[in-house]
Design goal:
Blueprint (H helix, E strand, L loop, with lengths): L1 E10 L2 E11 L4 E5 L6 H8 L7 E6 L2 E2 L5 H7 L1 E4 L11 H8 L5 H14 L1 H5 L10 H14 L4 E5 L7 H16 L4 E5 L2 H7 L2 E6 L2 E7 H5 L2 H8 L2
Parallel strand pairs: 3-8, 3-9, 6-7, 7-8
Antiparallel strand pairs: 1-2, 1-4, 4-5, 9-10
Helix pairs in contact: 3-6, 4-6
The protein binds adenosine-5'-triphosphate.
The site of adenosine-5'-triphosphate has 11 residues, from strand 2 and helix 1.
Family: Belongs to the ABC transporter superfamily.
Pfam families: ABC_tran (PF00005)
GO molecular function: ATP binding
Length: about 230
């Protein structure tokens, strides 16, 4: 569904992504894992059309989207959920959510809102509250809810577990699994290797701008090298 080949990108003379090949098929959760500063955010920026690729190609649903505008990418249904702090703090929960569906007519927006509230009853209870006053976990839910408002065909989640307590991290991963079980393919970009490998079907390890390792998540969980480097085991 999403196919990345030979992807390169960076900032001026600094090349951050140095030739990435990856694919996400319908129904999958695919994890891109890596430590701080390896290029996860840069990959997200390129996939959402905010930063141009310097080489390579991105295809979504069979069409080339390399060089497409963020707007066109969103219209195609490739929806990027930034980490939870990137909501609009001075707008209400409802206003934040409605922004996710701004291009839809009112009936669609209302139906999408209802679907989000079914998934996140907590957001319904806080519908008029300023988003900036939500807890970290609630802000993360709001960011995902806003992504769902856009009627995604594939959701890219940027560090959804960032800044959450261990219990909330568990809940967040359970939620991601549930969204996927309902039929939504997910690209999960995370630092949390252990829990990501539990819910993903496949994973890619990003190191210094290349995928140093990739494979079935179940195999990677047992890989001694990976356990040594990433889990300190
Ligand atoms: P983190 O998990 O810490 O957010 P990351 O994997 O998302 O890290 P990126 O933000 O993609 O990493 O950064 C990758 C590299 O690109 C870093 O060395 C960073 O300093 C560099 N970089 C990021 N943005 C810019 C920029 N606008 N100009 C120059 N270099 C940048």
């Amino acid at each position: 569904m999403l196919e990345v080949s030979g992807l390169r990108a960076g900032y001026g003379p600094v090349e951050v992504l140095r030739g990435l090949d990856m694919a996400v098929s319908g129904g999958e959760i695919v994890a891109v894992l890596g430590a701080n500063g390896v290029g996860k955010t840069t990959l997200n920026k390129v996939l959402s059309g905010v930063l141009p690729a310097t080489a390579g190609a991105i295809r979504f649903d069979g069409s080339a989207i390399t060089g497409a505008s963020p707007d066109a990418i969103v219209s195609a249904g490739l929806i990027h959920v930034p980490e939870g702090r990137k909501i609009f703090p001075n707008m209400s929960v409802r206003e934040n959510l409605e922004l996710g569906s701004y291009r839809r007519g009112k009936p669609r927006r209302r139906a999408n809102l209802e679907r989000v509230f079914e998934t996140f009853p907590r957001l319904r209870e806080r519908i008029r509250q300023f988003a900036g006053t939500l807890s970290g976990g609630e802000q993360q839910m709001l960011a995902i809810g806003r992504g769902m408002m856009a009627e995604p065909r594939l959701l890219i989640l940027d560090e959804p577990s960032l800044g959450l307590s261990p219990l909330l991290v568990e809940e967040m991963f359970a939620l991601i699994r549930r969204l996927n079980a309902d039929g939504l393919p997910i690209l999960l970009v995370e630092q949390n290797v252990v829990q990501s490998l539990e819910i993903a079907s496949r994973a890619f390890i990003l190191e210094n701008g290349i995928f140093a390792m990739h494979g079935a998540a179940a195999d990677m969980r047992d890989d001694p090298e990976l356990r040594r480097v990433y889990l300190g085991l």
